[in-house]
Amino acid sequence: MRDASLDPAAAIAVVAPGTRWGTMAEDFERRDQMFPRLSAEQIERLSKCGERRRVARGTVLFDQGDTSRNFHVVISGEIEVVHLVDGREEPITVLHAPGQFTGESSILTGRRPLVRGRMREDGELLEMTPDALRKVVQSDSELSEIFLRAFILRRVALIANHQGDAVLIGSCHSAATLRIREFLTRNGQPHTCLDVEKDSGVQVLLDRFQLRLEDVPVVISRYDRVLKNPTNEEVADCLGLNVAIERDRVRDVVVVGAGPAGLAAAVYGASEGLDVLVVESHAPGGQAGSSSKIENYLGFPTGISGQALAARAFMQAEKFGADILIARSGTRLRCDGQPYLLDLADGTTVSTRTIVIATGARYRKITVPDLPRFEGVGVYSGASGTEAQLCEGEDVIVVGGGNSAGQAAIFLARTARHVLVLVRGKGLAETMSRYLIQRIEASGKITLRTFTEVSGLEGNGRLERVHLRDSRTNELFAMPIRHLFLMTGANPNTDWLTDCVALDGKGFIKTGADLTEENLATWPLKRPPYLLETSRAGVFAVGDVRSNSVKRVASAVGEGSICVHFIHRALAE
């Protein structure tokens, strides 16, 4: 049986018959996992952490957009759960059996609920605060498995059915629309997306909120707040994706970057009792989060998408108590004294005794005139489901010879008419895993062209034509291509560090044995730097941002986890 914990196609089939979700399929096993019933003994264990109370018919237990809410277990009575659409209630399900419970993943992450829960008849409930629930999840493995599986499945069903509190109005020809849509998707935020050129009903919303086409993309939250061409940070704040952070609190460790390495550091650090804050500029998963399928990661023989892997790790970190800020980026690390100070782009400064730099790397941009003009409107640096929808039935080009490029080509070949893979060298053998090469060779929809590079881009408002050059013959030719995926090399995200830590010639962070005597001229301790420690004591670097690191997801996770061992040592000094 396949694991559908984060698979919308499987998750939407699991709601009880007679409900809005349940009309799609009849998967009884998944339905029982989404809406399980706790035993009398399990309820008794929970009773020690909560309070039983009588609740009258019509009482609203939680509402869409609430800044706080509790967890409820049905002892008697019925709870109806509905989705609000412009003041209109759409039924989702009814919790009526003793032992059924409320909540989805937002109750652990501290995000606002997306639905309304109300007593349909008088009854008795066991009520627990989110903090009490988190303690149960951390200490009771049996209940933890039941709750987390149900929470994940419920969130995925909300995503699959677009049952959120946000509507995105945009255009498939708008780079900003693609940015916001990817941000919402990568952060697991259910939403409805309307295209001004394809959806006939969009004009009604535009007129209602006095919007013009020049205003798109527009995010409408709960039909009462409108954001015109917002930044990701503004979207995150509007939708309540982040909890409030105590500014005068000194953390044990701040992790900058929530890719595989950063999330691993957060999970292991928080699970071992450290006070952890994670700062992520975009979405959990980093560059790996945009990978369509990772098949060589240990323990997933059929593969797992980067987004699914990141979502699970994100929930693990939250489960153990790590705080995570989304759409927040570090602008400066002040490392001249203790505690270290990290300045964020929103003006906030956080204090920490140690820091883990896990900001990863970004795909290197090719040197082509007018490239910025087509980014997001024909030129992409990731191949997720969002981009795949845009190029359905069309020819596409993937530039790059690494595993990410191979995974993208195979993924895009499912929906695209044809995929052309370009590499500057003689082939893929030296840069790509053999299993990916075999699939590319076996596919009738993928063609590899060697010794070829992009020399120019052309289009009116969006990409329409790609100019190529054969490096052996210097022959120039053009192709009518509207979708170009660039996955060429990597540049480290270290610009914000200024002169705080030693970097190598390419801008990657030097650690451990790679540090020279010159790098350690101001090293304050008698001991040498630990394996993953930088030229600043207590400042560590893990994952792709680290010099000479192995650019693999498993390696990044390993570095993030073992880094916590050195953090404990540094904190004890």
Give me the CATH superfamily of the largest domain.
FAD/NAD(P)-binding domain
> Low-confidence parts lasting 5 or more residues at pLDDT below 50?
1-26
Tell me the fraction of residues in β-strands, as a range.
Answer: 15-25%
Query: Any idea how many domains?
Result: 4
**Oligomeric state as shown:** single chain
| Average of pLDDT | 91
Shape designation:
globular
**Fraction of residues in helix:** 25-40%
Please describe the biggest sheet, giving its number of strands, its sense, and whether it closes into a barrel. Answer: 7 strands, mixed
CATH architecture field of the largest domain: 3-Layer(bba) Sandwich
Structural class: alpha/beta
CATH class wording of the largest domain: Alpha Beta
Distance between the termini: 49 Å
Number of helical stretches of at least 4 residues = 16
**What is the number of beta strands?**
26
Could you name the CATH topology of the largest domain? Answer: FAD/NAD(P)-binding domain
Radius of gyration: 25 Å
Please describe what this structure looks like.
With 573 residues, the chain is α/β, with parallel strands linked by helices. It folds into 4 domains: 8-160, Jelly Rolls, CATH 2.60.120; 166-239, Glutaredoxin, CATH 3.40.30.10; 250-362 and 494-572, FAD/NAD(P)-binding domain, CATH 3.50.50; 371-486, 3-Layer(bba) Sandwich (FAD/NAD(P)-binding domain). Strand 13 and strand 14 form a beta hairpin. The chain is globular, with a radius of gyration of 25 Å. 46% of the residues are buried.
